[in-house]
Amino acid sequence: MSTVAKALSVLETLADMPGEPGLTQIARTVKLDKATTHRMLVELEKFGFIEQDLTTRCYRLGNAPVRLAHIRESRYPFLDVVLPQIRRLAAETNETVHLSRFISGRLATVHVTESTHANRVTIPSGAILPLHATASGIAFLSALPMAERNALLGDALETFTAQTVVSRTILEQTIRDAVERGYSASQSGFDLGVSSVAAPILNNRNHPIGTVAVACPETRMSPPEIEKYGAMVAQTARDVTRAYWGTKQKAG
Amino acid sequence: MSTVAKALSVLETLADMPGEPGLTQIARTVKLDKATTHRMLVELEKFGFIEQDLTTRCYRLGNAPVRLAHIRESRYPFLDVVLPQIRRLAAETNETVHLSRFISGRLATVHVTESTHANRVTIPSGAILPLHATASGIAFLSALPMAERNALLGDALETFTAQTVVSRTILEQTIRDAVERGYSASQSGFDLGVSSVAAPILNNRNHPIGTVAVACPETRMSPPEIEKYGAMVAQTARDVTRAYWGTKQKAG
DNA sequence: TTTTTTCGGTTCATTTATTGAACCGTTGAT
DNA sequence: ATCAACGGTTCAATAAATGAACCGAAAAAA
Predict the structure, then answer these.
(1) Which of A180, B4, B82, B199 is 20 to 30 A from residue A202's alpha carbon, by CA?
(2) A57 with B252: CB under 8 angstroms?
(3) For B56, nearest residue in chain A (alpha carbons)
(4) Neighbours of B11 (CB within 10 A)
């Protein structure tokens, strides 16, 4: 493992730890020697990637990533790249299409293009989508390695409707189906009478960062539509992934 | 120079370079060997801090900083920490107080608390403040090393009013005055009839990230007020800096 | 109170990763 | 056809990273 990889591991570990941990705690979590961890922290701090509270001696994420994120987003605005694809899918299906992103541990709706049908599904932008009860959630989970999947799901699966999948084994099967087909499908799992299909948007390291989904009243989503929209949503997700991360796709 | 420092230098350099440079260009800019630079780029890419376009082989800033920035901002929201201080200054002066941040190369107004006077200064949130023509801009420049200062100012100084400072030598003197007093002052440099004083907000490495400013009609800003508000705005900027970066202040 | 543990941080002989001049194959300009 | 510049790789020489043991302080346990 290269020194740089160790430093970046320390940074990511710190970011994913709750609160403001101390040196020993960070070292234990990254599984690196205390002295090594300390040197990494010192270097990272020099560049503002982390900060240390002088009174408690604890570490926290710094401001440097915020600056870099600004630069990144001003040059490659995610929505600018993705929205045309979303709108095309919405036009082709004439159903409500929504885009979600995985932000600080939760899947949040960041854009919705509504269907023009009188009877249509409306989703508020910003809505948090439960991972086990929505097509988007299942799609997201389906692109995740098993370990991360279980960590995210936690212990209890909340019930939203009579049709919400709360059985662990059924959920596992649903996710396996989604992996196999390349898209997920859900009927009334979160909102009664709403059916949707969804596919994961991946980054260039094949980790999911969000989803695209088509949602409509269940009366317009019979098995042939599921298959048709499913294929379309999967294709759109692939297009989005390619448009945003260019041609470079890495394995695993 | 540690390996980690080299890697982070490569990252920051890439972020600050325009367009999508190639390996050799990056190596020249960071002043590191091509082989070394390449290894850093490969490591950074593994963690998503940078991306490479497979067709052009060029590098660009990646998505990882965006994720970290989300975590940082959700835990330490800048505005939550700063706004109470801004409001206190507004209450004490009963003049319009505004906060700006340096975002992707420009100084942008991110918050305004208006005076209750009938005759008051109104600034739209989001307004871009020219660096050479506003008290905020001068304050920001005054906290910057000479090299960065000149890089930011560019070649020509735009004229906004008859009083806009467009002479390089006068601007230099104005900045020196600001450095000496700890706050900057400007009369009608951007908007006619508006006077303001401002001070820089620093990060824990003493680099400016934004400014606090008091703005009012020039009729209410005679020399004694400049001095009084100047001292207050400088103190507020220091308080903000301390509140956001805790007790840890580093030299240099 | 005294003792023990845990903490953040440092040291330095040992180990290991980093380094960079020279190199290769490719591309694009002359 | 030639040359120059590119991205990327190689490997002996080298410089940096490593981590068990350590320090003093502070918290926890006795």
Answers:
(1) B4
(2) no
(3) A247
(4) 27
Question: Rounded distance, CA B170 to CA A193, Å?
Answer: 70
Q: What is the pLDDT of residues B53-78, one digit of tens each?
A: 878 889 999 888 988 888 888 788 88
Nucleotide nearest to A6 (CA to C1'): D17
Contact: B53, A248; criterion CB under 8 Å: yes
B246 contacts in A (CB within 8 Å)? 51, 53-55
Based on DSSP, count helices (H) and strands (E) in chain A, helices before strands.
9, 8
Q: Do A48 and B4 touch (CB under 8 A)?
A: no
Token duo for residue B224: 């004694």
Give the model's pLDDT for residue B252.
32
* 3-class SS of residue A94: coil
Tokens 């008859």 sit on residue: B162
Is B209 strand, coil or helix?
A: strand
- Spatial CA neighbour of A59 closest among A10, A103, A104, A105: A10
Contact between B69 and A71 using a beta-carbon 8 Å cutoff? no
Q: What is the 3-state secondary structure (H, E, C) of B137-169?
A: HHHHHHCCCHHHHHHHHCCCCCCCCCCCCCCHH
